[in-house]
Design goal:
Layout lengths: L1 H18 L4 H18 L5 H35 L1 H12 L3 H13 L2
Length: 112
Amino acid sequence: MQFVLSLLPILLILTLMVGFRWGASRSGGAGYLLVLIIAVTFFGANTNLLAYAHMKALLLSLDVLLVIWAAFFLDRVATEAGAIKTLGKILPDLAPDKGMQALVIGWVFASF
């Protein structure tokens, strides 16, 4: 039963986005409301639990945002310094095959 209840918001969002061509924010809001209804109705969540869950989600999303902002900042610095153009010139000499170039880029980015 819990598995089916956990799938309902995901299925609702997919149905609204694919079937009814709703946008992500609109269908996500509908999925969010369904989650709240399920949490209160079937799991007996009270306002304290919902407030705690929202605060935890906010803090976890801040962690992800910090990673994204740092990556964006690093990209801007590298672009302004001309590192992207330099990498574009050097990479074909380093690995002539496109597949090897992709592996080299992936290896370098994974080392951060």
